[in-house]
């Protein structure tokens, strides 16, 4: 299995530090996520807001240099502006602290503003928690979930702190041990509140687990099963989904075997699986893959799947490029009404426009990339 490079950008709640790891070449076949930053307490609004205005997070103290200079982009045509309006789910939550919303606020005169605002910034997207900060994680998760509850909408949260994350590769980080991770998960679960919330549990933690020894893999799967139970015990309305990779990765039977070991077949810890996080595979391919995984999982009929459709509107590149590949497009708008059996939601887990490292500084919002995806 070839492993693609990835980048984690995590803003610490206390230091406001940005960590950007250099990208390197790889294959799309096992593309780990290039994640958005984690929200800090300082950046969270005191009251939930449905407007694009946000409070800026502390400025980073370090970042990797931009690999390519952003080119000037022509003013969008009237036709582009007209077709840029996307249907926004009335139930999924748009968290008011994101890099794209900051860009929209700070660049009202930019000729790309209308397209980026209407097609990306207006859409609900997942909130990642990628930094291991036990002392503040409960409050930060609670700020997001309470914001969604106050508006009657469903937030999507992504815990991403499993030890040996990304097999020690370019998104390395997370908790120092599984014991520390279990304790962090308990604090994460304590912030889930009592309203509806979707949890995308540890992208790549199962699909990319072959790098571990059999014993270490079993220990990881035990912690993931425990994590699902902890979240559903803390909030029975939480819907927890486990890593099914994507349609270009592991065979459904192999993935299902691992998922079963990680507790994904039990409703005590799981509501099903997720796929295509930060990747580009077409929605029909993901639907078929997820149904095959669920069939092989042989769990209760209530188990379903959620799919990351943020950047899969043109499907995966034929050459397997994973780093800001050209010619990609936004996928289907986030929604909880897919019209497809066993497919519970289309989600934007990866925020479109946050670079993988080739069209902008890794992990940060790049307007030229966002505009190319959106138009």
TrEMBL record:
It is an enzyme of class 3 (hydrolase). Residues 54-66 have a biased composition (Polar residues). Residues 1-20 form the signal peptide. It comes from the Bacteria. SUPFAM superfamilies: Glycosyl hydrolases family 6, cellulases. Belongs to the glycosyl hydrolase family 6. This is Glucanase. It comes from Streptomyces lanatus.
């Amino acid at each position: 299995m070839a492993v693609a490079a990835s980048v984690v950008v995590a803003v610490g709640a206390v230091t406001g530090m940005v960590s950007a790891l250099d990208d390197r070449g790889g294959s799309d076949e096992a593309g780990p996520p290039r994640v958005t930053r984690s929200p800090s307490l300082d950046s969270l609004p005191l009251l939930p807001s449905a407007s694009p205005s946000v409070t800026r997070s502390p400025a980073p103290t370090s970042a990797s240099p931009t690999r390519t200079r952003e080119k000037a982009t022509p003013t969008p045509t009237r036709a582009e502006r007209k077709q840029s309006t996307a249907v926004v789910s009335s139930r999924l939550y748009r968290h008011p602290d994101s890099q794209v919303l900051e860009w929209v606020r700070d660049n009202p005169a930019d000729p790309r503003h209308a397209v980026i605002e209407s097609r990306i910034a207006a859409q609900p997207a997942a909130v990642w928690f990628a930094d291991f900060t036990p002392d503040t994680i409960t409050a930060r998760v609670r700020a997001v979930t309470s914001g969604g509850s106050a508006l009657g909408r469903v937030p999507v949260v992504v815990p991403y702190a499993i030890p040996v994350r990304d097999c020690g590769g370019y998104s390395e980080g997370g908790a120092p041990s599984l014991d520390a991770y279990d304790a962090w998960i308990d604090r994460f679960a304590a912030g889930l509140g009592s309203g509806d919330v979707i949890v995308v549990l540890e992208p790549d933690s199962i699909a990319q687990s072959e790098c571990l020894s059999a014993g270490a893999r079993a220990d990881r799967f035990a912690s993931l099963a425990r994590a699902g139970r902890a979240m559903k015990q803390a909030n029975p309305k939480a819907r927890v989904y486990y890593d099914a990779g994507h349609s270009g990765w592991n065979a459904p039977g192999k993935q299902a075997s691992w998922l079963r070991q990680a507790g994904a077949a039990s409703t005590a810890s799981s509501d099903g699986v997720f796929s295509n996080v930060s990747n580009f595979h077409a929605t029909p391919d993901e639907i078929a893959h997820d149904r095959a995984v669920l069939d092989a999982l042989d769990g209760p009929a209530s188990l379903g799947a959620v799919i990351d459709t943020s950047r899969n509107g043109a499907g995966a590149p034929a050459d397997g490029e994973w780093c800001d590949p050209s010619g990609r497009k936004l996928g289907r708008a986030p929604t909880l009404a897919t019209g497809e059996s066993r497919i519970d939601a289309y989600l934007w887990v990866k925020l479109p426009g946050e670079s993988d490292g080739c069209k902008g500084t890794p992990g940060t919002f790049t307007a030229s990339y966002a505009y190319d995806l959106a138009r």
